[in-house]
Amino acid sequence: AQSVTQPDIHITVSEGASLELRCNYSYGATPYLFWYVQSPGQGLQLLLKYFSGDTLVQGIKGFEAEFKRSQSSFNLRKPTVHWSDAAEYFCAVETGGFKTIFGAGTRLFVKA
Amino acid sequence: ETGVTQTPRHLVMGMTNKKSLKCEQHLGHNAMYWYKQSAKKPLELMFVYSLEERVENNSVPSRFSPECPNSSHLFLHLHTLQPEDSALYLCASSQDGSGPSGANVLTFGAGSRLTVL
Predict the structure, then answer these.
(1) Quick check: A45 and B101 CB within 8 A?
(2) Distance from the CA of A67 to the CA of which of A35, A46, A103, B3 falls in 20 to 30 A?
(3) What sign for the dihedral angle of Cα B40, A100, B99, B2?
(4) What is the DSSP string of B24-75?
(5) Which residues contact B51 (CB under 8 A, 6 or more apart)?
(6) What are the pLDDT digits (tens) for B8-57?
(7) Sign of torsion, CA B69 B71 B73 B78?
(8) CB pair distance less than 8 Å for A98 and B55
(9) Cβ neighbours of A41 in B, within 8 Å
């Protein structure tokens, strides 16, 4: 079955530290992969996407993600976290047509 | 106005009420979506319209009734809801095949927070 797993429900990092959010997917074909971010009281905003080509993709706000086909992973990283990065992050895979499957999300807390 | 706008942002209704959620997109997209976001659950796709035709209906109870009068507007009509329907309802739009390989990149509205008493 097609699925997206974000193993960490929440993560706490110190401001200025690096960040990695994990995402694993289950999908038979070449996936279209996304990371979205949701701030409190807001909708989801696209951070970055992978369709094909270079497996390291750059996004907005200094985020990047690396697609690893052998591990079925698409982990999100940021070298230096800012307090404003506190939010919920969703990994997603488009499975064709108009269907996008989302993970359950990882809530990021940033401590001073 | 730019992007995807949802109204109302908050709605409290009784189980016997009839209400509607509205979504408007100003992006020139040709596909629109309703998602349900409940606490501690992944987003659930409810309905998809492409070129004003419904293309997805994921076993949603009939107390939810979508309407897409044109490519810029999407409604979700609510009738005889249950307390478990309380959630954040997100509207999204995309340009069908907007990615280089035909993927749909979603642009979301801020959501309508629904509470059913």
Answers:
(1) no
(2) B3
(3) negative
(4) EE-S--SEEEEEEE-TTS--EEEEEEETTEEEEE-S--TTEEEEEEETTEEE
(5) B30, B31, B71, B96
(6) 999 999 888 899 999 999 999 999 999 999 987 889 999 999 888 888 77
(7) positive
(8) yes
(9) 110
